[in-house]
Amino acid sequence: MTTPHASGLRALANRRRILDIAHAELLRAPDASMNQIARAAGVARRTVYGHFPSRDTLVAALIGEAIESVEQAHVVGREGVADPVEALARSLLAVWEVVDRYRLLLALAPQSLTMKGIRDRLGVVHEAGTRLIQRALDEGTFTSPLPAEGLRYVLEGVLFSVMEATNSGHVRPEEAGRATTVTFLCAAGMPHHRAVELLARILDR
User: Which residues of the chain form CATH 1.10.357.10?
Assistant: First the structure.
């Protein structure tokens, strides 16, 4: 007899497998249907719908995982780094590694999951980033006329713009994270040569 605990574990394992397979299938074929995902996952169609009532719900769950991974990457990237600009650069490079894995899925985001909704869910990341930007402004490393909150919007805009440019084939994925980081540092008022030197020093370690 299957115990409730075993049944719950199996359900969690099925959900995890569906998400992993859906991620791979949607990257391979963005128009993949729920039936295709179910076949690829080796489960019945009703099992997929039991976890995710619609394709939009499934995509939203994947993007939710991406948001959680971004939060973790941002923390790990800046952890133990005293200099605010280096902390920003490291966290941005770490975040891009996550974004690169999920960037194609953002084009599939349901209309209910707006960019504002994504921004709201990244509130902790925004707060930490804004504090680092403010410190860099206070120390004179950043010389932008924009306040810290305004520069945070610039950072977000650069990240999403490079992501879309990468999706469109205008930026090579292997260069996108470095390009995003240097572009933002320069936009914040840091001389280009210093931004490049900082990035080289980080990547050389």
Answer: 62-204
